[in-house]
Every structure is written in C-alpha cells, then in structure tokens.
C-alpha cells in the first residue's frame, strides 16, 4: 500500500463529464450530481484505511454541505480484480451501511479517475457553481485513524467558502491516502 499526497489545486480547471453506474442501479452524470453552488467529487474505495477512518465524517460533511447548495458524489476507481473488497457488491454494502447521502459510482474503466488526475483514496475535488476546481485538499487532520473531535474541518470550511463566494481558499493542505490501484494493461 503506497501512501500518496494529492497535488496542489489547479484552480479553475473544469470538471470532466462522466456517465457512471451507481450502487443504486442508476447511471449518473456530472450534471445530475452537481448542486446549485457546486460539487464535491470524492475518489474513495472500501478497503483503504485512510477512507475507513473518515467515512462517517464524509457523510456528515456531505449532509451539511447540501444546505449550502453543494452536492457530493463518490467514485470508486480501483482495480477490483486485485482488491475484491472494492467490488461493486461490496460498494453497495458500504453505501448502505454508512447511509451514503450521495451517489457512489463505479469507475470500472478507470478513465474518469485518470481524467480528473486522481492519485489516492481519499482524493477530494471541490468545484464551484461554474464547475471550476476550487479545492483539492484534505478532509481534516485524520490519517489512518480519525482525528480528535473538534479539529478544523478543512474540506467543509473550504466548500462552505466556495458556496458563499465561488472561490476556494488559496492555502490548502493535501489529502493523504492509499494509491489508486491501477489496472495493468
């Protein structure tokens, strides 16, 4: 398991359209996922300890951000042949267990993860109402264990700012997580 950090935010880079299968049986597009004030796009998986440590906080923040007109979507990009815990059936179970309030989508070709430049799980991309990138940072201080209660909610605060102003903070701390498990072609 290689630990990676996300790159610096490429401000104003446009979100890439997609059409991906959700655990709810629907096909979801970028347009269907966005909120009136923006979109939080998350690359996550089921097996990564960094993701496991923050799943409940992701759900909390996604629910609160809806009140600011920011919708969320999660994409699972890993090679399930080598990581069966990330299989579609297990995605369905995890989404149900944690009551994901957002679509959980399967990037079976890994083309969307590549198009976005995702490098790890979790990897967060925060877009404004014009679907221009404004945040590429961490959720909070959590690593393989949840951070203490009461720590700064970096992602939530940044996306709240995006909802209110259209712009994200210039200072951002990278997310850290497991490398995406790319398929060997």
Which SSEs are present, and which pair or pack?
Blueprint: E1 3-5, E2 19-22, E3 27-29, H1 30-33, E4 38-43, H2 49-52, H3 55-66, E5 70-76, H4 88-97, E6 104-106, H5 111-116, E7 120-121, E8 123-128, E9 133-135, H6 154-165, E10 176-179
Protein name: Thioredoxin family protein
Pfam family, one: AhpC-TSA
InterPro entries: AhpC/TSA (IPR000866), PRX-like1 (IPR047262), Thioredoxin-like_sf (IPR036249), Thioredoxin_domain (IPR013766)
Describe the 3D structure.
The protein has helices at residues 30-33, 49-52, 55-66, 88-97, 111-116, 154-165, and strands spanning 3-5, 19-22, 27-29, 38-43, 70-76, 104-106, 120-121, 123-128, 133-135, 176-179. By secondary structure, it is an alpha+beta fold. It has a four-stranded mixed sheet with strand order 3-2-6-5. A three-stranded antiparallel sheet has the order 1-10-7. Helix 3 packs parallel to helix 6 (154-165). The longest helix has 12 residues, at 55-66. The model has no long low-confidence stretch (mean pLDDT 96).
